[in-house]
Amino acid sequence: MDPQPLxxxxxxxxxxxxxxxxxxxKAAVRAAAGQFESVFMRQMLKAMRDAVPKSGMWDGPAxxxxxxxxxxxxxxxxxVANPVVANNALIRQALAAFAAxxxxxxxxxxxxxxxxxxxxxxxxxxAAAGTARWTGQAGPVYxxxxxxxxxxxxxxxxxxxxxxxxxxxxxxxxxxxxxFIVGQAALESGWGRHEIRNANGTGSFNLFGIKAGGxxxxxxxxxxxxxxxxxxxTRRVERFRAYGSYGEAFQDWAGMMVRNPRYSRxxxxxxxxxxxxxxxxxxxxATDPAYGSKLEKVIQKTLxxxxxVT
Length: 310
What we know:
Layout: H1 12-23, H2 25-50, H3 61-77, H4 85-102, H5 114-117, H6 121-135, H7 154-174, H8 178-189, E1 220-229, E2 232-241, H9 246-259, H10 261-269, H11 273-282, H12 291-302
Antiparallel strand pairs: 1-2
């Protein structure tokens, strides 16, 4: 008979991991990566719960506490035959570091990023190399599953927690660090406060200010915006793409970055934050002549999100 599984909050799991590290370090690396994956999935579950309207009848501190415990335990019970890519990325990095320390070649698990990023293994490898170009580090580099929001205000931190899982997926398919992507979403939407609204007042989930051109076949929302023509600011009403979720918005942004030649060249070149922001302006992402400097400023603020929470 299998032993009784431990609760997700049971401290004995950490003791077991310490013992495993002494006996089989590589297996311990995979176990630790699974725990990081658990944190990532809990954040996704929390984001989904936050998106569901609440009646207020049963809301309260006790309910929030037990709901969080349920989500944590549910994640531990989910099948792990196909772990998410955050797990695999952490395993790759940790095993590489272990191999460098021990003087042995690193072994890596099969690349399971396809279902998450919507791309094949080759595309995922290209994205990993792209992230390394932007971060200045060699080899696959991925953002942490849980962002560090210590330097953000309350509303800004709430915005980041809500969109971070989607930014991680966009990072996997474009190679652009999640902090860069969140920075652009924050600039375009005022940290989510100025999200474009549909005619009935509901949110369009369009955080990137992407317009609905002639080739767009989905829903659209009209909104007043400032465009610069000949250096002069002009207010006009434009049609913007409307999505069914933030996940769709980030997926559409990533697809545009990869498929549109003027943006794909930027992704391939890599470079500094300043170069990324300036090239996005040169590519015509926005007509604001100061767009590059504004984007750079916000991304510099979001770069703190990349630091692992200890």
